[in-house]
Amino acid sequence: MRDTVNILGIPIDNVNMDKAVDIVKGFLAEDRVHAIYTPNSEIMMEAQRDQNLKEILCEGDLLIPDGAGVVLASKILGHKLPERVAGFDLVCRIFELPSELKEDISLFLLGAKPGVAEEAAANIINKYKGVNIVGCHHGYFQEDEESKIIDQINASGAQILLVALGAPKQEKWIHKNKDKIKARICMGVGGSLDILAGRSTRAPEFYQKHGLEWLYRLYKEPWRYKRMLDLPRFIMLTLKVRLSKTRPS
User: Fold this and answer.
1) Residue 210's closest CA among 67, 92, 91?
2) What is the predicted pLDDT for the residue at 41?
3) DSSP secondary structure string for all residues of 43-73
4) DSSP code for 173
5) Other CB atoms within 10 A of residue 190 CB
6) Are strands 34-37 and 62-63 parallel, antiparallel or unpaired?
7) Neighbours of 169 (CB within 10 A)
8) Side-chain-facing half-sphere of 248: CA atoms under 13 Å
């Protein structure tokens, strides 16, 4: 039975990192495609404005709390999630599965600028034993090219498809095409390929541990400030929901 926490109408899985990895192992053993999404505060807030995105998230097979704001929201609502499960960290744990399971896994990398996926693939292969990158394709493609790309993914025999198109585009792309894809797992990974390729870096460990990656991103990319306003909006909306439940009728 799936254990989730309802946050503003979206079922976030009540998992820590180890539990999320165990679920991924189970997905790999099942002969069907599974969608993994990594909602943070910005995505959660966007889903309040975009009903289609909200429905897509609700239909996902695993929604990890990728953001300190999501964990804080769960506490406000009285259903504490155990910890933040960052999408990038889960991807790296997936790369370690061959050593743990004693069998290779195959991945296809889709997204980012031309050349980035290939650079990421080279770094992944050098670092993680048993990870086979069986195909790459950049994210700058037109809708009429999708069928050809999906054929390429399926022909590669990939068990896992990492989709780095940015949110919410990647979630919508996965939802639209998952029934055509033969991989066991389709996961939206945002800017992970850029980090894996060495094109960009994560926030220092201090910021990660204290839930301040958003602050580091704002410092590095000040033009993102409008999007960052969704963080306080998300918490304020969560507080409003909490107060409405505790207010006498």
Assistant:
1) 67
2) 94
3) HHHHHHH-HHHHHHHHT-SEE---SHHHHHH
4) H
5) 22
6) parallel
7) 13
8) 0
